[in-house]
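Protein of interest.
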Amino acid sequence: MNWRIKPLDEILATAEKKSLHRSLSAFQLMMMGVGAIIGTGIFVLTAEAAQKAGPGMMVSFVIAGFVCAVAALCYAELASMVPVSGSAYTYSYAVLGELVAWVVGWALILEYAVAASAVSVGWSNYFVGLVERSLGLDIPDALSKGPFAGGIMNVPAAVIALLVTTLLVLGTRESARINAVLVLIKVAALTVFVILAIPVVNGDNFEPFSPNGFWDASGLGIAGAAASIFFAYVGFDAVSTAAEETKNPQRNVPLGLIGSLAICTVFYLLVATGVVGSVGAQPVVDPTGQAIAPGSPAMAEACALPANADQLVCSGEPLAQVLDQLGWKTMSQLIGLAAFLALPSVILMMLFGQTRIFFVMARDRLLPFSDSLSKVHPRYGTPYVVTIITGLAVTVFSAFFPVGVLADISNSGTLFAFLAVSIGVMVLRVRDPGRHRPFHTPAIWLVGPLALLGCGFLFFSLPPATQLTFVYWTLAGLVVYLLYGFRNSPLAGRNGGV
């Protein structure tokens, strides 16, 4: 059976023929990573994690961070060896073959596009709260929430998605410079939160520590929260998609990956401690005493009750609400302002990663209309066609779907891609041990299997409906591949068969 493996040397040669401009430094990559990682996961999904695990979400952050750490080490080795756009898709093409690469690329489309939509909804939550508290205006739910929460369309989320798409079309360097400023704003905001919340931590707020247990088939518990909060770490792999636009990628890509993940992990643990310890984070339950699934109509109804109005788990802007409850009204406003200003940088990085995956798949002629999709703008030097298409799709998703559901769906695609990378780095160690590796994953035969098992564990900790959505998406992708990519691939005539 021939798996249509595309040699690494050929991938590098293809990239040189139709390449993107190298302009990014190690610092810019690290800022891109921090910009992509710190965002909706910590500013918004903290409430969802609390609903699933209560104070046990502290452990959830550790589990998700550990899985990301071992996956990052695998990513760093492959990214340093294959410094071209495409991330896990390109790595899989070189190691596991075209069919697996297609499924990975298709999963990455799900990851980045849906993630950008989730962050857009998270930004909308803070925008609405900021406007209503600062200006005393009441923005109707019909225009600020999707149908899941009794609204019609989330207009602010749709607008920000379109604005970020426009910015990304204008150029990578310009986007990176703006992103660096926004990253500093986010880091400053989280630092202020930690300084104000940690001193008033009350040990009693950590009891009961795990009200929903460790694992539940419905996606609740510490494991379910880890699977959701995994979204808070997603983004570091977007650094690897920028490899083709990076100066000295063999050195700078691993630095960007590992450095950004380390910075964010420290922040997350401090922020989570402040949230849980200062105001408490117990889940809302139904009349039978069972925790309600976050993002569901039942959850929206429960949070509409006056008794639950001030519950952390019902907040769309949990960090701002914590400071508000602690009496720091002005600082609460500033946290909301920081999220308002900074979350667009996460949308930018998610869209950046998505368009680069699309671009490389089109350049490999695996997508219909490949010539049009792989066009680079003559003035701005960006893949503008795929950027516009992706931006429009993100706009639609963000306008009508809830943040938690979007985040879980995005995680399913991410976990599959990470799983493929974990396998790929081990296979390549056996198949091509002599190839130059600027970055070696330490203890690969321990780290690789841990990444593989960790990704599998988190995937099966997601809600069953999310797992099913991923299966349907994958099947749809296979249909597209069999009808078009399989026949039109440059490798078809060379070593046909799958």
Notes: The domain at 8-12+22-284+311-491 is CATH 1.20.1740.10 (Amino acid/polyamine transporter I). The radius of gyration is 22 Å.
